[in-house]
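Journal club prep — side note

Before the paper discussion, L.F. wants everyone to see what a predicted structure for a comparable chain looks like in token form. Sequence:
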Amino acid sequence: MKLPRPGSFPTETASGPSRDNDDKELDSGAVRLDIQSAIKSAGESGRATEPARREAQAIRLDAFRQRFDALVSNVAGVVVTSPENFRLALLGLFAQGHLLLEDLPGVGKTMLAKAIAASIDARFSRIQFTPDLLPSDITGTSVFDMHRQTFEFVPGPIFANIVLADELNRAGPRTQSALLESMGEGQVSADGVARPLPRPFAVIATQNLIESYGTFPLPNSQLDRFMVTMTLGLPAPEQEMEILRRAEQGVGTERLTPVLSTVEVAEMQDTVLSVEVAPPVQQYIVNLAAASRNSDALAVGVSPRASTALMRACQAWAAFAGRSFVVPEDVQKLAPHVWGHRVLAGPDHGAGAGRAAIAELLDSVPVPL
């Protein structure tokens, strides 16, 4: 069965999808029903044969790839960067993790985060972190109801599907720690009650590395909650020309319309979990983790949480490529981005030094056959 293809990857057009919202909802529902009926006809049940399971998995991955391409095409309508940067930026969302963008001011970090949020029909919150921001400004607080004579909890901006934490390192450690439980466990505890966050839930945070005045470095416990760190880098001359052309025409995120629903994103997250990681690849990750803990170049190696995060990220990266299995090249590609901010290397202990140290570590550990 061939599913309708909603978009190509990547696109360089400045406009969003041309269909209206009603058409998209109908098409999305039809695709979902086609996927479900195809999986059912493939015999995916307790009695399903191995060929039937493989066919069902192929159907899921085909639908995943089409939806992913549509999302990237939509974001690329306003953000000018490389295809690899788009994939890295979306890793956190589909691998059920979080993204930290570290770069110079003005390279498009906030625009990228807003474009991803605008491309999904989901609840979106933006939190501008400042030194006077309080934890309750993020998680919410209890307000006394005069009519009922009781306290009522008013949820904060963290109760959204996609949360943009802009300039995260401008808030103090007390406020930064308000994100720990929500990012690690998907819930907020307040007044003795644990309140679950909506699914999907992803935090996209930004920080400027060149400024030191009025900033507070993120502690290791906070950095460990981010699955991926990345930099966009400065654009190539032809990319900067495209940026100027779009700025001249007033192209911005307000022109974007959603191409995915939260239900579809949750289905894609489930598809990522179905990507196979063979024991030799798992052993490769374990060997790399052990090498990081014994390396003289690293003051602190990676934790088991980091190993799990790398495996999950590799599953998503394989799904982006339409594969139902992870290969060692996925591990080598993503290890610097997933582990670079979790290790202590070099005099500045920065993520850039960590990524370089992990890249060198990859050369010292053989790939299991």
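L.F.'s comment for the group: The chain has two domains: 84-266, 275-369. Keep this in mind when we get to the figures.
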